[in-house]
Amino acid sequence: MSSLKVSVVKGNGKAILSDRGTGTRSQFSTDGLMRRFEPLKQILSDHRILWNRPDVRKSVRENFNKVEICRTAALGAEVYASEREERAFFHSCKSRSCPSCGHRATILWQREQWASLPDIPYVGIVLTMPNVL
């Protein structure tokens, strides 16, 4: 039976994976993955000079930065390992403006709203009254 090791790591944008069976370690950058699968992150990264300035609102800069580093080694990771393999699962930014994190939060919010509605057929009616009454 294989043992499982779990640890939390903080990184510098690089992740290290090792194969415990062979003892080999490989280091890879998340930049290549970002270019292929996450075009918004690539656009924000390429145009950082346009949005990371003092005249841009602080909340915009913070959220763009969160989106850019979401699910990368910069936020840290959970590392799961057995005797043969070690895998890192990167932390998410949990920002509402992030396409992956925010979408999930939106879906959960929608489900909560639908659950709060009464389970009966109903029709919404809007009446507009004149000011002179």
Chain-wise SSE layout:
Blueprint: E1 5-9, E2 14-19, E3 24-29, H1 31-37, H2 39-46, H3 48-51, H4 58-69, E4 77-81, E5 86-90, H5 99-116
Antiparallel strand pairs: 1-4, 2-3, 4-5
Helix pairs in contact: 2-4
In a nutshell, what does this entry contain?
The chain contains 5 helices and 5 strands, in the order E-E-E-H-H-H-H-E-E-H. The protein has helices at 31-37, 39-46, 48-51, 58-69, 99-116; strands spanning 5-9, 14-19, 24-29, 77-81, 86-90. A 3-stranded antiparallel β-sheet has the order 1-4-5, with no helix packed on it. The protein has a two-stranded antiparallel ribbon with strand order 2-3.
Spatial shape: flat
Helix count equals 5
Q: Which stretches are poorly predicted, pLDDT < 50 over at least 5 residues?
A: 12-30
N-to-C span: 81 Å
By secondary-structure content and strand pairing, the structural class works out as alpha+beta
Largest sheet entry: 3 strands, antiparallel
Beta fraction of the residues? 15-25%
SSE order, one letter for each helix or strand: EEEHHHHEEH
User: How many beta-strand segments?
Assistant: 5
Level of helix content? 25-40%
How are strands sequenced across the largest beta sheet? 1-4-5
Mean pLDDT: 77
Rg calc: 23 Å
